[in-house]
């Protein structure tokens, strides 16, 4: 099991802007994730949300969207929390805290990819593409059948 460094203490939201950004970057039920789910659902695809998957690597992994029969796990990452190379804007306040937090998220993402792939799952990570494109890739992977792998969307 790969260790994850402990984080410095959570800072107070230092300004209205930081509070707004923390709120906008909420981990679950983000706008893009909801849109992706509704497109998938409209296409007749059925899936589980936040289903814990035991991988033999400590705590279960909870992908955002899970297709159990196809063993396909989809994560909707969000450019801020996961340090997207194109869109991540480093925070100007509490720099140490945020740098550690993002690094830890990225490390955890890699760990989860590895655990799921080893357990025979296909992992898709979606950062910032349109929900429509993401849904196309999900549909393609589902119809291709399963080959454990990791890939970025689309
Ligand atoms: Zn991005």
Largest sheet: 5 strands, mixed
H/E element string? HHEEEHEHE
Number of domains: 1
- Proportion of β residues? 5-15%
N-to-C terminal Cα separation, in Å?
A: 30 Å
In short:
Helix content is 38%, strand content 12%. It is an alpha/beta fold and 154 residues long.
Main traits of this protein?
alpha/beta, Endonuclease, Chain A, 5-stranded mixed β-sheet, 4 helices, disordered N terminus, single chain, 38% helix, binds zinc ion, 154 residues
Any overview of this molecule?
21% of the residues are buried. The two termini are 30 Å apart. The protein has helices at 16-24, 31-42, 95-118, 131-144; strands at 48-49, 65-67, 72-76, 122-126, 150-152. The radius of gyration is 16 Å and the shape is globular. Strands 1-2-3-4-5 form a 5-stranded mixed sheet, with helices on both faces. It has 4 helices and 5 strands. The chain has one domain (28-152): VSR Endonuclease (Endonuclease, Chain A, 3-Layer(aba) Sandwich), CATH 3.40.960.10. With 154 residues, the protein is an alpha/beta fold. Bound molecules: zinc ion. Zinc ion is lined by residues 79, 84, 86-87, 127-128.
